[in-house]
Write a structure and sequence with these properties.
This protein is an alpha+beta fold and about 220 residues long. The protein folds into two domains: about 140 residues, Winged helix-like DNA-binding domain superfamily/Winged helix DNA-binding domain (Arc Repressor Mutant, subunit A, Orthogonal Bundle), CATH 1.10.10.10; about 70 residues, SH3 type barrels, CATH 2.30.30.90. It is built from eight helices and seven strands. Helix 1 crosses helix 4.
């Protein structure tokens, strides 16, 4: 596969398997990748011809077993590289996505496995996303965000979006993965959420939608 094909296979996996969905619509896939629907249609035809995806007209697309294996390989590489960049090379977690994106297409499986063992077999990347085992499909990851909670809910931050502005904000506020909070106030119309932990923070709707949690 070339890089564009790998990116599509990886995105289909993220939008189906990790969200526990059977299919992803082509329009949604186009928007996530940032291309036209025509470009996506052409790519899906190519991937289906190569046995990587199954397209169901008017419903969407899903990965075949071969496609899932390729996606797991790419996602595993990306997330292991992010751990290496942050833990060993001391990159900030807001800086590593683009570099890992470049490296994942060239690093061999042998190198990734060596890094994985060297790093102590990490279970997740710096943003809380699970690192798949080399031969096992990852389980769906939490899609519950602060935005979905009701006042009084107690929660722990499980993962965050790899959004640079978000990660910069969290750094400035000292908010980290595994921090525990209670949702003290919520005003959807105004887009204001107040969370209380060791400190109290007021965040907007955009931030609330990008922080994924597990209820305590």
């Amino acid at each position: 596969m070339n890089r564009a094909e790998e990116d599509y296979v990886k995105m289909i996996y993220l939008q189906t398997v990790e969200k526990d969905l059977a299919l992803v619509k082509l329009q949604e896939l186009s928007e996530e990748i940032g291309v036209t629907i025509q470009t996506t249609n052409e790519m899906i035809k190519r991937l289906e011809k190569n046995g990587l995806v199954k397209y169901i007209p008017y419903k969407g697309v899903k990965l075949t077993k071969q496609g899932k294996n390729e996606a797991i390989r790419m996602i595993r590489s990306h997330r292991v590289l992010e751990v290496f960049l942050t833990e060993t090379l001391k990159f900030n977690w807001g800086e590593v996505h683009e570099d890992a994106e470049l490296l994942e297409h060239s690093a061999s499986e042998r190198v990734i496995n060596a890094l994985y063992n060297f790093l102590g077999k990490p279970e997740s990347d710096p943003h809380g996303n699970p690192i798949p085992k080399s031969d096992v499909e990852t389980l769906p990851v939490t899609q519950l965000s602060i935005h979905d909670l009701v006042v009084g809910d107690k929660f722990v931050i499980e993962r965050v979006s790899e959004n640079k502005s978000l990660l910069s904000y969290l750094d400035k506020q000292g908010i980290k993965l595994k921090d525990e909070f209670t949702l003290k106030a919520k005003d959807v119309e105004l887009g204001v959420f107040e969370i209380e932990g060791k400190n109290t923070y007021t965040i907007n709707s955009n931030i609330a939608k990008l922080i994924y949690v597990k209820l305590n």
